[in-house]
Amino acid sequence: MIVVLKNGAPEQKVQELTNGLKARGFDIHVSKGTTTTIFGLIGDTSQIEPEELLAYDFVESAQRVKAPYKQASRSFHPADTVVCVKSKTDANLGGCIGDGKSVVVMAGPCSVENEAQVVEVAKAVKASGARFLRGGAFKPRTSPYSFQGLGADGLELLKIARAETGLPIVTELMAINQIPLFEDVDIIQIGARNMQNFDLLKEVGKLKQPILLKRGLSSTVKEFLMSAEYIMASGNQNVILCERGIRTFDNYTRNCLDLSIVPFLKKETHLPVIIDPSHACGIRWMVPTLAKAAVAVGADGLIIEVHNNPEKALCDGEQSLTPAQFDDTMKLLAKYAAVENRTL
Fold it and tell me: What is the chain's alpha carbon radius of gyration, rounded to the nearest angstrom?
């Protein structure tokens, strides 16, 4: 339930209402704007009627939230959530995702293979304007015989690349028992295959780092947002939604990029939305075109795979851009972003 308070509501009366609602078993999420304060009631709101709250003269309105994803809903939190992650060594790196002023690009190899590879790619994407380094240390693969990543050693290599370049790192967490290894990771990714791993979502909801949540391969938008709700309900409000393509009946591309989700999510939720064009198509030459489309439709950022030698990549080489191709793509994207008065 959403409760909107009148401007200038007396603090003592508001506190009395808050205490009363908490005594009845409700959790309350408070969103304060410049002129409006909104209470989001979390719990079994069937036991309270909006009219009961309207009896307070400092309550402007009270209404039930129809969407089951209450904390992710824009009704619950009208202002955009902006997730800011800064570099520890370079003020020009990292950035604020969802601020409406920039398109934040995360780039790097699908899998971390060795120190020379990840450092070389990190330096290249930084030179081209990427703000974050993405790279897989733990890799979920369809085949048990495929390269599964370097694991904990891969995380350490990502940290070496961060120290060399200043780029904050984004990497995927696959299991609850891996969480202690991720204490020094800047943004934790929950991949498509784990989007509905609810025990894992609850645990990352207790962490301080932002969570980049990828849409499941065949998930509806409602299921996607309910997964975000699991994270937020556990306390972590810094969730970044990532569309990476879904399965359809056709297979001319690896997945089907659902660009229509961006304007829908921007209206329905307050969370930032980014696009992964690499996994969406699985074809290198299509990535720049889909990245352009993502910027045009209003995405807050992009996560793009880049490899210094795609032909010999241990994972997803066919969809990875070379550093030179990534540089050309960034120059092109800067022009598209400028049309909307945004920067890369």
Answer: 21
